[in-house]
Amino acid sequence: MAKLESFSSRWGVVLAGLGMAVGTGNMWRFPRIAAENGGAAFLIPWFLFLFIWSIPLLIAEFAIGRGTRRGAVGAFATLTGGRFAWMGGFVAVVTVMILFYYSVVTGWTLRYLVAAMIGDFHSANPQEYWDAAASGWQAGAYHVVSALVGAWIIQRGVVRGIEAANRVLVPALFVLLIISVVRAVSLPGAERGLEFLFNPDLSSLTNYKTWLEALTQSAWSTGAGWGLILTFGIYLKKREDVVLNSVTIGFGDNSASLLAGLAMLPVVFAILSLQDAHAALQSGNEGLMFIWVPQLFERMAGGGIMLPVFFLALACAALSSLIAMIELAARILMDSGMARRKAVRIVTAAIIVVGMPSALNLTIFKNQDWVWGVGLMISGLFISLLVTMYGSAKFLKDFVNVTPGGMRVGRAFELVLKYLIPAQFVVMFGWWMYTAATEYDSAGWWNPDPINHTFSVGTCVVQWAVALTLLMAFNKRIAAASTSQPIESADEDEVVS
After folding, report:
1. Is 0.90 topped by the overall pTM?
2. What is the pLDDT of residues 468-481, one digit of tens each?
């Protein structure tokens, strides 16, 4: 039996998990969403959902990966006797579809890092510069570069690739964020941004949207339910404490979000007028990061130095998340017996080809981001259902509470996975669909056209239905392929039956 490669230490596991979790959502979505939903008051539900959505799913994923030694498809097939391999397939499809356009996002960060280093923003119109970089040949070229860089890391394996990259990317990200925070809070007028972020507007807690945005932010930011931690769990040693690692990653991700807020909002309110500050925060994720941020640093003393620092941090966050997604896709192919190098080459080719439309056309990018971003909620539900189908008490005994002297979870974990997460899914998913039907595209909410009805309910339902129909139709085949190889061991003293 071949020996499965494993992370060299707990530090390597945590860094890989943080690299997966901390991405562009921490950098550009959290500061905006927190500021718009009560500032410090928003942090209350945000921290709550860390414990009743994100950390329980991270624990479940780590345990599933370590227990089955297979990717998302093979794990579901193993634990359900092959009947629900299609669920694992959907988890994989959602994340792979995100991978196809996330390489475009990573390309944007690299493009702006280069621009910041060479001073390309000095005479440029911010909107025109973004329009040129967001789609077309520039976006396409950097999309390819991102895919190739990520593939080069992944084909080197777990220790020499994933772990080695995150040993550089994650500490660099936190150091760069801390440098940015120190400079941001030292600006004259920075206290207005700090007050905006940390002065609680408790009245916002009576608004259901604040709670739903907090749940959404926690779910998307931590990577819980994506199948990524499940994939990394394959490479855990048997003695690894999945509970401690999950808690560490959850808190680390939240810390990165808070640092991003401290690096961003003081600068916004110190440099801009109150009216322009609110306009910047309401300009959307890409607008805030790629249109307003260059203007902010251009107007700030020392901005010529801080702008490359900030975009380097953003590029580190994007790349560390990208490599986790590439590993998930490659692992599924490896489960069927394919060598790592060949699997990575196939995945890379797919990223370049299938992701190119999102690179060349911003409308297609936004449609895919909408469809598969919301689809992540279904993935989280499927992870919780897998634990319930296996038997939550048996799951804890067989896969979670197995580390001598490690942190343990009990009945509360079972109740969260069995009841709370499905309930949160219903509310959160229903809200997004209702918002799409009443606010985003009330006239054509049913229309599946991804170009003219980019954010409709119909475009989500049709694309999900296609994926689910194909997965269910070929359930037996994908179950057999994903479990055809003998389960490898990640420990010399571990025997896997």
Report:
1. yes
2. 999 999 999 999 99
